């Protein structure tokens, strides 16, 4: 089997510039792996085999002709099925959108296309990005390529599994409460949630609009930086997108992180943190201290309230955003409704899965007459306290570090019957979405059972460069490197 | 904090979800447990804290009001479950009986 899928994005870029291989060879090698492994993993919901081959042939000619190559020339990418890719299905892992064909490209897709990327297909996800295991997909769960009986995390579990199994070079995910970082941690790859407003949400199917961000999932911090740089920047089509200029790629990767002061939040070290996860984090920090990095304790006192706040506000926004699925304008429609009200109720009852229904109900309750002040407004007030915690902590330190998840990947079926326990698996990730700040997960170790352990780095708003630079430094310390499943480890 | 079955039914109606008896029972228990967990927020005094509804410190940016090309011409007919002659088709909205229809 070709080793091309095991290269990093950066290695692929330099290989193309030296004309060591052609886009067609790279795309074909990935499609072969998808064919062999996807039936077992269920990472992709749809593979654009013909489209990718056509596009690769066009790029082959461009390479032969010479001239400048785009920053993502010939890079095979996977796309979470929550993003619109013109002319292809965008299901959001839901029966509700099974018939939906996206009529336009999301802004980030358009940018990647213009820079030469090749899209291999759309990846599986928890329905409407609601979940932490990809078991909430209407099209079956995705399996973790490190251990098939375990979940890949979620909601961007398909993208994480595809990167980890080398079924694409990198992928796009979306993160509302941890949906990029948690699956990245579970699958031994890098996942970045950018600052709120840094990447345009135009063409992203909305879950909770004041939380959602699109971000890269890749094999290294450098690869994540390249993809981030390619999709970041102002977009007039998204009124929440920031006009702040995006630093150059060199600036994103050029900081000396050995001089950083890192904060370790004492509130994160609570009951429920797995011993191997804890040990891996502390060992990594000790290694960093050996290089001159300073580590000190910080306090984020409202941390214990973050999950409660998140599940009020995100479900409230979801109940409003998902009101559009009514069986009239697009998507699934129930048959045999006698009235318009019945059409809505039957369509939504048959089109949505249990987790989506539960969250719509919870959000509707929090917004309903008599409860709005006690739930929605109260949660929004605590949201400010959580942001203020971070603001105070970042006066003292350059970045904050924590485990990404309290435990290594859990078993398929282990938490699916118990929504609250599943919600608590996002305990270290959702505070950042409340505060709108950037965070990245990267692999730092494997447990005795070989399961990946992720570390989360958090930075002040629009300071993504600190994440990439510290991430690259940690990768130098991680031996052997963890970039998804190793070449010599069979997946299925 | 508990939640009554009638409340769950009311929320389902507001959410436009036709739930089965089994779903009502399941959600009643699950929502009660989640609301009980969420109840921890009552411990905090937030009387002096303004709510934060949006993390975007820079505020929202509106587009200049200048004429430009429309987005891609979307064929609504291809997207809609039922569409005819420029209209989305839905069941009748007005409840009518024969005598009313005759009057119309």
Plain-language structure description:
The complex is a heterodimer of chains A (492) and B (104). Chain A is globular. The longest helix of chain A is centred in the last third of the chain and has 21 residues, at 373-393. Chain A has an eleven-stranded mixed β-sheet with strand order 1-3-2-4-6-5-10-11-9-7-8, sandwiched between helices. With 492 residues, chain A is an alpha/beta fold. Chain A contains 16 helices and eleven strands. Chain A has a domain at 4-256 and 465-477: Alpha-Beta Complex (Amidase signature (AS) enzymes), CATH 3.90.1300.10. Chain B has a domain at 5-43: Orthogonal Bundle (Histone, subunit A). Helix content of chain B is 37%, strand content 4%. Chain B contains four helices and two strands; from the N terminus they run H-H-H-E-E-H. Chain B has helices spanning 5-14, 21-38, 76-79, 98-103, and strands at 83-84, 87-88. In chain B, strands 1-2 form a two-stranded antiparallel sheet. The longest helix of chain B is centred in the first third of the chain and has 18 residues, at 21-38. Chain B is flat, with a radius of gyration of 24 Å. Chain B starts with a helix and ends with a helix. The model of chain B is unreliable at 99-104 (pLDDT under 50). At the A-B interface, helix 10, helix 11, helix 12, helix 13 and helix 14 of A face helix 1, helix 2 and helix 3 of B.
């Amino acid at each position: 089997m070709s080793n091309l899928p095991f290269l990093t994005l950066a290695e692929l870029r330099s290989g193309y510039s030296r004309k060591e291989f052609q886009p067609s060879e790279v795309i074909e090698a990935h499609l072969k792996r998808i064919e062999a492994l996807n039936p077992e993993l269920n990472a992709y919901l749809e593979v654009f085999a013909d489209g990718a081959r056509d596009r690769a042939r066009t790029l082959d000619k461009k390479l032969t002709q010479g001239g400048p190559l785009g920053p993502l020339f010939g890079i095979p990418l996977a796309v979470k099925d929550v993003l619109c890719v013109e002319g292809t299905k965008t299901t959001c892992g839901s029966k509700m959108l099974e018939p939906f064909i996206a009529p336009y490209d999301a802004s980030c897709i358009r940018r990647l296309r213009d820079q030469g990327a090749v899209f291999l297909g759309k990846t599986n996800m928890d329905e409407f990005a609601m979940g932490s295991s990809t078991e909430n997909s209407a099209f079956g769960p995705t399996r973790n390529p490190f251990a098939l009986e375990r979940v890949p995390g979620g909601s961007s579990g398909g993208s994480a599994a595809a990167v980890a199994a080398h079924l694409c070079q990198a992928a796009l995910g979306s993160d509302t409460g941890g949906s990029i970082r948690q699956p990245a941690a579970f699958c031994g790859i890098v996942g970045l949630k950018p600052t709120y407003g840094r990447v345009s949400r135009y063409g992203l199917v909305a879950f909770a609009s004041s939380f959602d961000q699109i971000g890269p999932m890749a094999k290294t911090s450098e690869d994540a930086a390249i993809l981030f740089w390619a999709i970041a920047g102002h977009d007039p089509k998204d009124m929440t997108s920031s006009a702040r200029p995006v630093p150059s790629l060199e600036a994103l990767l050029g900081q000396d992180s050995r001089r950083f002061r890192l904060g370790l939040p004492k509130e994160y070290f609570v009951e429920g943190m797995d011993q191997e996860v804890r040990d891996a984090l502390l060992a990594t920090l000790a290694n960093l201290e050996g290089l001159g990095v300073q580590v000190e304790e910080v306090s984020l006192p409202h941390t214990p309230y973050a999950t409660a706040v998140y599940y009020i506000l995100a479900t409230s926004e979801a109940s409003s955003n998902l009101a559009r699925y009514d069986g009239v304008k697009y998507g699934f429609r129930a048959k045999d409704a006698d009235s318009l009200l019945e059409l809505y109720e039957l369509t939504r009852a048959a089109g949505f899965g249990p987790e989506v229904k539960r969250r719509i109900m919870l959000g509707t309750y929090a917004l309903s007459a008599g409860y709005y002040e006690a739930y929605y407004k109260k949660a929004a007030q605590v949201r400010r306290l959580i942001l203020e915690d971070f603001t105070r902590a970042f006066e003292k330190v350059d970045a904050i570090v924590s485990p990404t998840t309290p435990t290594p990947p859990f078993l398929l079926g282990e938490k699916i019957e118990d929504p609250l326990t599943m919600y608590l698996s996002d305990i270290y990730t959702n505070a950042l979405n409340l505060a709108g700040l950037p965070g990245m997960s990267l692999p730092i170790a494997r447990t005795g059972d070989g399961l990946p352990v992720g570390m989360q780095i958090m930075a002040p708003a629009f300071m993504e460069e600190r994440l990439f630079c510290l991430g690259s430094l940690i990768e130098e310390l991680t031996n052997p490197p963890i970039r998804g499943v190793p070449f010599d480890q069979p997946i299925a | 904090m508990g939640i009554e079955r009638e409340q769950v039914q009311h929320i389902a109606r507001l959410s436009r979800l036709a739930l089965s008896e089994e779903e009502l029972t399941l959600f009643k228990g699950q929502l009660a447990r989640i609301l009980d967990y969420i109840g921890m927020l009552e411990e905090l005094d937030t009387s002096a804290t303004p709510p934060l509804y949006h993390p975007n410190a820079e505020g929202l940016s509106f587009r200049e009001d200048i004429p430009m090309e429309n987005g891609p011409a979307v064929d609504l007919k291809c997207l809609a479950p039922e569409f005819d002659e420029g209209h989305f088709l839905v069941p009748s909205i007005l409840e009518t009986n024969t005598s009313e229809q005759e009057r119309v």
